[in-house]
Amino acid sequence: MLGAIIGDICGSTYEASGRKTTKPHTVWLTHPNSRFTDDTVLTIATADALLQKRSYTKVYKKWGCRYSDAGFGGTFWQWMQSNSQEPYNSWGNGSAMRVSPVGWTFATLEETLAEAKRSAEVTHNHPEGIKGALSVAAAIFLARNGKTKQEIKEYVASTFNYDLNRTTDSIRPDYKFEVSCMGSVPEAIICFLESNNFIQSIQLAISIGGDTDTIACIAGGIAEAFYQEVPKELVMFADSKLTDEMKQVVVNFRSMILPIP
Q1: Domains along the chain with CATH numbers
Q2: Per-residue exposure over 168-184, b if at least 16 CB sit within 10 Å of its own CB, e if not
Q3: CB-side exposure of 162: number of CA atoms within 13 Å?
């Protein structure tokens, strides 16, 4: 899930700025004003729920309230502050941006999809909200298990009916700030598919504009699983932005999925 956290932090300073570039390699990833947002908070919350085998509802509320100024959407913010245990039928990309730990945890695709659905539907029980989470978790599962980009693309496109035949150059000119799963998850996956390495996946995600922290979070989560390597300088940069309790969950989660011999 480090890739997702790094994508969120690197994309944070560009969110809704309107900046786009046809030269993604020029995108500066380690801006000093970068910070973690709700994407990181809830990605870590998902990992914590998996580690503790606790209810997603309770854990999302706990982490959300602890970092209530992280930039949550209005509906989620109201839900996390309320006593409600019920979902609110969201089709937003929040379900997809927080799901990366699920893609790393389970031994089969079937288990991964079932858990991704559980993680989504506590808030995002709209079919599109669930689909967004499933598609990202599936892409991460397939990537970490050695599938090619073509195999990942074909599975996601055929299973979730996302158009992945576009390019970032074709998306960029008319792309707007978009928080729906259907309007941002395919774009994030395309940024991963078009990349040649982890850094480029993040730069491409930022280069198309819009909800850059979330698009980079999703692309980065898949890219980490596929490339199996995240540059140390970006790991250190992200680490410098996290709180101690966040770092501990990251360490504990990585120990669970990558046990030390």
Answers
A1: 2-257 (1.10.4080.10)
A2: beebbeebeebebbbbb
A3: 28
pLDDT in tens, 134-151: 999 999 999 999 999 999
Predicted confidence band of residue 261 (pLDDT cuts 50, 70, 90): very low
Residues in Cβ contact with 218 at an 8 Å cutoff, skipping those fewer than 6 apart: 4, 7, 93, 96, 97, 100, 136, 184, 185, 188, 189, 205
Distance (Å, whole) CA 197 – CA 25: 12
Mean pLDDT of 8-22: 91
Rounded Cα distance, 56 and 254, in Å: 19
On the CB side of 87, how many CA atoms lie within 13 Å of its CA? 20
